[in-house]
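Z., the sequence and structure:
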Amino acid sequence: MDGYGGTILRINLTDKTIKKEPTDPGVMEKFLGGRGFGIYTLYTEVPRGADPLGPENKLIASTGPLSGVLVPGAGKMDWTTKSPLTGGYASSSVGGMLTAELKQAGYDSIILEGVSEQPVYIFIDDDVVEIRDASPYWGMGCISLEKKLKDELGEEFQIACIGPGGESLVKYACISHDWGRQAGRGGVGAVMGSKKVKAIAVRGTKDIPLADVEGLIKHGRALFKACKDAPAMEAWQRYGTTSVVSWCDENGALPTRNFQAGAFKEGKNLYGEVMRQAIVKTDKGCFACPSPCGKYSYSKKHDLYVEGPEYET
């Protein structure tokens, strides 16, 4: 299957079994991958009435058909599950490098099912897949854990993990990746915590099968150029998500005092242009992104670099 890794990784945490199942071309033709595949799997495999934090629920991490190749906008990993927050389905995306790494390891999706008795993490290094003990890491925050795992396994590994919130089954807990990017919707981190999975570490070195390499390069370049030439992209790249603060403030849509008002008297001090000049030092982008919206800023008080600011800040 051109564009796909060709394998679905199914990990049962109750009986500690790992199965590599061939990706179904018929399913991918209808649902493509990513969120579509996640919702299809959730609908067909999780029974009605299942406890979101129980063994019947599943956590599905999926790539898309363009993950891992140089096409703009294909850097997201989708996490799908039954939400402990709403009782409905949850689909949460996170940027970074994880989706490309998983595809380059040869996998289109990871399906986590069952519940582990002890904390574990999932180790994936191309064809080598292991369920490893994570007891020493239980209780660690996400940034500290990501650093520790990269120190132990290698900088090239991409990490998705939960912190104490996910471990404690906080119903809006996130899954963290790439030093602070979050799959933040629906409580996917709580589901990961309910399965006692502290982290997933992935390294992939394989080529992705493609039907028309030259055609992909041609159209990929055209798409990158279109993104670069789009007028709105210049502000998005320079200021990131803070580029919308001025528009929201000027149009009465800036959440102020928990939306008691739609504009902020001192709002001009928070505009992206001001932040860029005052504290932002460099940019950060996801895999194959033509407009890196992430920013790193310098704190004079603490003499360190921190990520942000973002619109949500």
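The longest strand covers residues 197-203. The chain has two domains: 7-203, 230-307.

Let me know what you think.
H.
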